[in-house]
């Protein structure tokens, strides 16, 4: 239990956890699903701050459960729902269809990024 104390965070109705591993987007998605959860997806400022806490703890950027849809520049939650909260870094998203995934920087802001980069896996339950 003590080992998990620093690894799990509660925010609202969600529990957030990370295994500390850096993988590509597809692998992060799969890891979270296999664990019975989903890739961490901030739907408000409080959740964004909780995910940021884990990003800072591991000092690594993390993928979020957000992807670009069929329309270039239009991002959605991985369940297909439109975003109801965003925290884009200044001048982002700027990938114009080439950067389909979203990562969180160490200041909590978001950047669109190619899905083959290795980023921290953070799951929500």
From TrEMBL:
Keywords: Disulfide bond, Lectin, Secreted, Signal. One of its GO terms (biological process) is ossification. It comes from the Eukaryota. The keyword Glycoprotein does not apply. GO terms for cellular component: extracellular space. SUPFAM superfamilies: C-type lectin-like. It is found in: Secreted. Pfam families: Lectin_C. Residues 25-124 form the C-type lectin domain. This is SFTPA protein. It comes from Circaetus pectoralis. The lineage of its organism: Eukaryota, Metazoa, Chordata, Craniata, Vertebrata.
């Amino acid at each position: 239990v003590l080992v998990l104390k620093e690894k799990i965070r509660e925010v609202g109705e969600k529990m957030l956890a990370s295994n500390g591993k850096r993988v590509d987007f597809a692998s992060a998605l799969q890891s979270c699903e296999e664990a019975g959860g989903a890739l961490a997806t901030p739907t408000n400022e409080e959740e964004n701050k909780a995910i940021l806490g884990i990003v800072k703890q591991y000092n690594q950027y993390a993928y979020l459960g957000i992807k670009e849809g069929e329309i270039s520049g239009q991002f959605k939650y991985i369940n297909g729902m439109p975003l109801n909260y965003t925290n884009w870094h200044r001048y982002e998203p700027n990938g114009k269809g080439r950067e389909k995934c979203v990562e969180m920087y160490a200041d909590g802001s978001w950047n669109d990024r190619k899905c083959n980069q290795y980023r921290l896996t953070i799951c929500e339950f």
